[in-house]
Design goal:
- It is built from 16 helices and 13 strands.
- By secondary structure, the chain is α/β, with parallel strands linked by helices.
- The protein has a 6-stranded parallel beta sheet with strand order 3-2-1-4-5-6, with helices on both faces.
- Helix 1 packs across helix 8.
- The longest helix has 24 residues.
Length: 382
C-alpha cells in the first residue's frame, strides 16, 4: 500500500449540520477526500452545544476545511454555486424544497454538472413520509428499535447517535459506489440516505423472525436466552463483568476457568438445550465464583483462560483502555480555541495500517475562505 489515500484528488463540498451529514463528510475525509464544510458566518450551531451535544461538532468535522457563507445573501449564494462547479461530491441535509429554492436540488445541479454526485442525508427515503422531519430518537421509536432496547412499557433509545452515524456511513457508501460508476460512465448520481430506513435495517432481524415464525421477540431486557451463559455478574468490589458461553468449547473453558469442572460431568448438562434449561441453578454457581473475587482478579482469570467476557465500562474509561491506546487507536485533533482531544478514526485497517488522513484537526469558522474562494476567483479569471 502506498501512502496515498483512496479518495485523494476528490473534492467534497458539505453543507450539513448535527451528525448524519457531517459524519458522511468525515468518512470521506478520512479516506483522503478534500472536504470543504460550508457553514454560516456565525458558524455551525453544533459548535456551541454543551453536555451530550458537546462532542457532535468536533467528532464529526475532523479533517475538514471551513468556508463561511451567508447563503441567504445572493452574492454568497453565487459563490457557493461557483464552488460547487469545482466539486465532485455535494453532501447536504436540507429539506428538498429549501434546496430547490436556492437552485441546489440534485436535478438542478446535475443539469450544469452531469458528473456531480449529490449525497442527500434525509430523515426518510422517497415515499409517504419523505417530507416529515426526523431525528435519531424519532426513528428509533417509529421502527421498534426503542421498543427492543428498553423493558416493556419503557421504550429506550440506544446510548449513542448510532442511526445518524450509520446513515452517514450509508451515504458515504453510496458516494463510493457512484464514484466507481462515474469512472466507467462519466455520469454522476443523486444519492439519498434515509435515517428511518437505516434504523429499519437495524431491526430487520426481528421483522424477519416474525415473518418466518409468526412470533415476536420480547424487548432485549426480557429476551429468551439462546446461550447457557450470557449475563452480567457483580464482583466482590461492586463492579460488573459480562460473561458469555455460546458454544460447547466456551462452556468447557468457562467451567474449567472458574473451577466448576464438576458441571462438565453433570448428566443434566450434556447438551446446549440442557444447559440453557438449567440456567436457573447454574448461573448462581457462576455468580458465587465471580462475587468471590475483585474486579481486576476476575478480568485476569477471564483473560488467562481465553473466556468470552467484557468489563462493563463507561465511554470515558476508553481513554485508559490498552487496546484503544494501541498505535493507531486514537488520533489527537486540534480544536481551534478549545482543548485538543483524542478520538478514534475509521474502524478499518488497510494492509495492516489504520485508514486516516494526515489532518484530523477542527477548522475555525471560515478558516479557509481565502484559500478556497480566492482560488475560485483565480480560476474564473483564467
Amino acid at each position: 500500500m502506498t501512502n496515498a489515500l483512496p479518495l485523494e484528488g476528490v473534492r467534497v463540498v458539505e453543507m450539513s449540520h448535527m451528525v448524519m451529514g457531517p459524519s458522511t463528510g468525515m468518512f470521506l475525509s478520512f479516506l483522503g477526500a478534500e472536504v470543504i464544510k460550508v457553514e454560516p458566518p456565525q458558524g455551525d450551531k453544533t459548535r456551541d452545544l454543551t453536555g451530550m451535544g458537546a462532542g457532535f461538532f468536533p467528532t464529526f468535522n475532523r479533517g475538514k476545511k471551513s468556508v463561511a457563507l451567508n447563503i441567504k445573501d445572493p452574492d454568497d449564494l453565487a459563490k457557493l454555486h461557483a464552488l460547487l462547479k469545482t466539486a465532485d461530491v455535494f453532501v447536504e441535509n436540507f429539506r428538498d424544497e429549501t434546496l430547490a429554492r436556492m437552485g441546489l436540488a440534485p436535478d438542478q445541479l446535475r443539469k450544469t454538472n452531469p458528473s456531480m454526485i449529490v449525497a442527500s442525508c434525509k430523515g426518510f427515503l422517497k415515499g409517504p413520509y419523505e417530507k416529515r422531519a426526523a431525528m435519531d430518537e424519532v426513528v428509533q421509536m417509529m421502527t421498534g428499535m426503542a421498543y427492543m432496547t428498553g423493558p416493556t412499557g419503557r421504550p429506550l433509545r440506544i446510548g449513542s447517535s448510532a442511526n445518524d452515524i450509520m446513515g452517514g456511513l450509508f451515504a458515504a457508501y453510496g458516494v463510493l459506489a457512484a464514484l466507481i460508476a462515474r469512472n466507467k460512465t462519466g455520469e454522476g448520481a443523486a444519492i439519498r440516505s434515509g435515517l428511518f430506513e437505516n434504523c429499519l435495517l437495524l431491526v430487520a432481524q426481528h421483522m424477519v423472525q416474525f415473518d418466518i415464525e409468526g412470533t415476536e421477540s420480547p424487548p432485549m431486557p426480557e429476551r429468551v436466552f439462546s446461550w447457557p451463559v450470557y449475563d452480567l455478574f457483580p464482583t466482590s468490589d461492586g463492579r460488573q463483568i459480562f460473561v458469555g458461553a455460546a458454544t460447547d468449547g466456551q462452556w468447557e473453558k468457562l467451567c474449567k476457568g472458574l473451577g466448576l469442572d464438576h458441571l462438565l460431568e453433570d448428566p443434566r448438562l450434556q447438551s446446549r438445550p440442557d444447559q440453557i434449561a438449567a440456567r436457573h441453578w447454574t448461573l448462581p454457581l457462576i455468580a458465587d465464583v465471580v462475587a468471590s473475587r475483585p474486579y481486576d482478579d476476575m478480568l485476569r482469570i477471564m483473560e488467562e483462560n481465553d473466556l468470552l467476557f467484557a468489563p462493563v465500562a463507561r465511554p470515558a474509561e476508553m481513554y485508559d483502555d490498552p487496546h484503544v491506546n494501541r498505535d493507531g487507536g486514537l488520533f489527537t485533533s486540534k480544536y481551534s480555541d478549545k482543548r485538543d482531544f483524542r478520538a478514534p478514526a475509521l474502524p478499518v485497517e488497510m494492509d495492516g495500517r489504520p485508514i486516516v488522513s494526515l489532518n484530523v484537526d477542527i477548522p475555525a469558522i471560515g478558516q479557509h475562505n481565502t484559500e478556497i474562494l480566492g482560488n475560485l476567483n483565480m480560476e474564473a479569471a483564467q
